[in-house]
Design goal:
Pyridox_Oxase_N; Pnp Oxidase, Chain A; oxidoreductase activity, acting on the CH-CH group of donors; six-stranded antiparallel beta barrel; 4 helices; F420H2_bilvrd_red/Heme_oxyg
Length: 160
Protein backbone atom coordinates (compact mmCIF):
# COMPACT_ATOMS: atom_id res chain seq x y z
CA UNK A 1 0.00 0.00 0.00
CA UNK A 2 1.33 3.43 -0.95
CA UNK A 3 1.03 6.08 1.76
CA UNK A 4 -0.64 9.36 0.73
CA UNK A 5 2.49 11.46 1.23
CA UNK A 6 4.54 9.02 -0.85
CA UNK A 7 1.90 8.87 -3.58
CA UNK A 8 1.67 12.64 -3.82
CA UNK A 9 5.47 12.88 -3.92
CA UNK A 10 5.53 10.38 -6.79
CA UNK A 11 2.96 12.43 -8.71
CA UNK A 12 5.14 15.50 -8.17
CA UNK A 13 8.12 13.59 -9.61
CA UNK A 14 6.33 12.23 -12.70
CA UNK A 15 3.76 14.87 -13.65
CA UNK A 16 6.04 17.73 -14.80
CA UNK A 17 7.58 15.50 -17.50
CA UNK A 18 4.16 15.35 -19.21
CA UNK A 19 3.08 18.91 -18.40
CA UNK A 20 0.84 17.68 -15.56
CA UNK A 21 -1.40 15.78 -17.99
CA UNK A 22 -3.32 12.92 -16.45
CA UNK A 23 -5.82 10.39 -17.71
CA UNK A 24 -9.12 10.82 -15.88
CA UNK A 25 -11.29 7.74 -15.40
CA UNK A 26 -14.86 8.32 -14.25
CA UNK A 27 -17.89 6.02 -14.50
CA UNK A 28 -20.50 6.54 -17.21
CA UNK A 29 -24.22 5.89 -16.62
CA UNK A 30 -23.91 2.47 -18.32
CA UNK A 31 -21.15 1.47 -15.87
CA UNK A 32 -18.39 1.67 -18.47
CA UNK A 33 -15.36 3.89 -17.85
CA UNK A 34 -15.48 7.46 -19.08
CA UNK A 35 -11.96 8.50 -20.02
CA UNK A 36 -10.43 11.86 -20.86
CA UNK A 37 -7.18 13.76 -20.47
CA UNK A 38 -6.92 16.69 -18.04
CA UNK A 39 -4.26 18.93 -16.53
CA UNK A 40 -4.25 18.22 -12.81
CA UNK A 41 -2.20 19.44 -9.88
CA UNK A 42 -1.82 19.02 -6.14
CA UNK A 43 -2.97 21.70 -3.71
CA UNK A 44 -4.62 22.05 -0.30
CA UNK A 45 -8.37 21.50 -0.21
CA UNK A 46 -9.96 24.98 0.06
CA UNK A 47 -12.05 24.03 3.09
CA UNK A 48 -10.05 21.36 4.95
CA UNK A 49 -6.48 22.19 3.96
CA UNK A 50 -5.84 18.47 3.31
CA UNK A 51 -3.92 17.57 0.14
CA UNK A 52 -6.12 17.16 -2.91
CA UNK A 53 -5.49 16.42 -6.56
CA UNK A 54 -7.53 18.82 -8.63
CA UNK A 55 -8.38 19.82 -12.17
CA UNK A 56 -10.74 22.23 -13.88
CA UNK A 57 -13.48 21.09 -16.25
CA UNK A 58 -15.52 23.05 -18.76
CA UNK A 59 -19.21 23.15 -17.81
CA UNK A 60 -21.63 20.84 -19.60
CA UNK A 61 -19.15 18.01 -20.18
CA UNK A 62 -19.76 14.27 -19.94
CA UNK A 63 -17.07 14.01 -17.25
CA UNK A 64 -18.99 16.41 -15.00
CA UNK A 65 -22.22 14.51 -15.62
CA UNK A 66 -20.44 11.29 -14.67
CA UNK A 67 -18.86 12.81 -11.56
CA UNK A 68 -22.14 14.32 -10.38
CA UNK A 69 -23.83 10.91 -10.58
CA UNK A 70 -20.90 8.87 -9.28
CA UNK A 71 -18.52 11.16 -7.38
CA UNK A 72 -15.38 8.98 -7.53
CA UNK A 73 -12.55 9.08 -10.01
CA UNK A 74 -9.05 7.92 -10.80
CA UNK A 75 -6.27 10.07 -12.27
CA UNK A 76 -3.25 8.39 -13.88
CA UNK A 77 0.00 10.35 -14.24
CA UNK A 78 2.92 8.98 -16.25
CA UNK A 79 6.41 9.76 -17.49
CA UNK A 80 7.86 7.26 -19.91
CA UNK A 81 7.00 3.79 -18.65
CA UNK A 82 6.55 4.85 -15.03
CA UNK A 83 3.10 5.76 -13.77
CA UNK A 84 1.02 6.31 -10.67
CA UNK A 85 -2.76 6.34 -10.27
CA UNK A 86 -4.64 8.12 -7.52
CA UNK A 87 -8.26 7.28 -6.74
CA UNK A 88 -10.83 8.72 -4.40
CA UNK A 89 -14.05 10.62 -3.93
CA UNK A 90 -14.46 13.93 -5.72
CA UNK A 91 -16.14 17.19 -4.84
CA UNK A 92 -17.27 19.69 -7.45
CA UNK A 93 -17.21 23.47 -7.04
CA UNK A 94 -18.51 25.68 -9.81
CA UNK A 95 -21.38 27.82 -11.05
CA UNK A 96 -23.55 24.71 -11.52
CA UNK A 97 -22.14 22.94 -8.46
CA UNK A 98 -22.19 25.27 -5.44
CA UNK A 99 -19.75 24.17 -2.75
CA UNK A 100 -20.18 24.79 0.95
CA UNK A 101 -18.11 27.76 2.13
CA UNK A 102 -17.00 28.75 -1.38
CA UNK A 103 -18.45 31.98 -2.75
CA UNK A 104 -17.86 33.35 -6.28
CA UNK A 105 -14.62 35.10 -5.30
CA UNK A 106 -13.23 32.01 -3.56
CA UNK A 107 -14.13 29.93 -6.63
CA UNK A 108 -12.35 32.41 -8.93
CA UNK A 109 -9.21 32.11 -6.81
CA UNK A 110 -9.51 28.32 -6.54
CA UNK A 111 -9.66 27.98 -10.33
CA UNK A 112 -6.49 30.08 -10.56
CA UNK A 113 -4.79 27.98 -7.88
CA UNK A 114 -5.64 24.72 -9.66
CA UNK A 115 -4.35 26.14 -12.96
CA UNK A 116 -1.06 27.11 -11.32
CA UNK A 117 -0.75 23.76 -9.49
CA UNK A 118 -1.15 22.01 -12.84
CA UNK A 119 1.77 23.98 -14.27
CA UNK A 120 -0.25 26.72 -15.93
CA UNK A 121 1.06 30.25 -16.38
CA UNK A 122 -1.22 32.87 -17.93
CA UNK A 123 -0.06 36.31 -19.07
CA UNK A 124 -3.41 37.92 -18.19
CA UNK A 125 -5.22 36.46 -15.19
CA UNK A 126 -8.22 38.78 -15.66
CA UNK A 127 -8.65 37.29 -19.14
CA UNK A 128 -8.29 33.81 -17.60
CA UNK A 129 -11.02 34.62 -15.07
CA UNK A 130 -13.37 35.82 -17.84
CA UNK A 131 -12.79 32.65 -19.87
CA UNK A 132 -13.41 30.44 -16.82
CA UNK A 133 -16.70 32.22 -16.11
CA UNK A 134 -17.82 32.11 -19.76
CA UNK A 135 -17.10 28.35 -19.94
CA UNK A 136 -18.84 27.74 -16.59
CA UNK A 137 -15.67 25.99 -15.40
CA UNK A 138 -15.89 23.72 -12.39
CA UNK A 139 -13.16 22.75 -9.96
CA UNK A 140 -12.91 19.00 -9.40
CA UNK A 141 -11.23 18.09 -6.11
CA UNK A 142 -10.16 14.47 -5.65
CA UNK A 143 -9.36 13.35 -2.11
CA UNK A 144 -6.64 10.68 -2.40
CA UNK A 145 -7.66 7.41 -0.77
CA UNK A 146 -5.74 4.89 -2.91
CA UNK A 147 -2.58 4.89 -4.99
CA UNK A 148 -1.40 2.22 -7.42
CA UNK A 149 1.81 2.25 -9.41
CA UNK A 150 4.49 0.24 -11.09
CA UNK A 151 7.75 0.13 -9.15
CA UNK A 152 10.07 3.10 -9.88
CA UNK A 153 12.74 2.24 -12.39
CA UNK A 154 10.74 -0.59 -13.96
CA UNK A 155 12.42 -1.50 -17.23
CA UNK A 156 10.32 -2.07 -20.32
CA UNK A 157 11.49 -3.03 -23.75
CA UNK A 158 10.10 -1.31 -26.77
CA UNK A 159 8.21 -3.69 -29.08
CA UNK A 160 10.29 -4.90 -32.04
Amino acid sequence: MIRTADGLARITELAPAERWLAVLVSTRPDGEPGVSVVNAGILPHPRTGEPTVAFVSRGGTAKLTNLRSRPRATLVFRAGWEWIAVSGPVELAGPDDPAEGLDAEALRLLLRDIYAAAGGVHPDLDEYDRAMAADRRTAVLLTPTRFTSNPPGTDHEEPA
